[in-house]
Amino acid sequence: MPRTYKISKGKDYVLVTIDDSGAYIIKDSAGRKVFLTRYQAQLMKFGIENIVKDAFENVETKDVVVEEIKE
After folding, report:
1. CA distance 18 to 4
2. In a 10 Å sphere around its CB, with 0-12 CB exposed, 13-18 middle and 19+ buried, how is residue 13 labelled?
3. What is the pLDDT along the chain (71 residues), one digit of tens a residue?
């Protein structure tokens, strides 16, 4: 069963859907979509955690809200 999450900060948000195969569909508030296969999502996670983590050190995340959307 696919799970959908809304990640928001103020009025800006993205919707992240994870399907049964492990693929990710990311949709922003403007309606643009990105499809990532399970393998691409694993590479993306590795890249974010290991390559660009220094860019996120000073980012304030306490007002970021993650909520699961029940369909």
Report:
1. 6
2. middle
3. 889 999 888 888 999 898 888 888 889 989 999 888 888 877 777 666 665 566 556 666 677 788 889 86
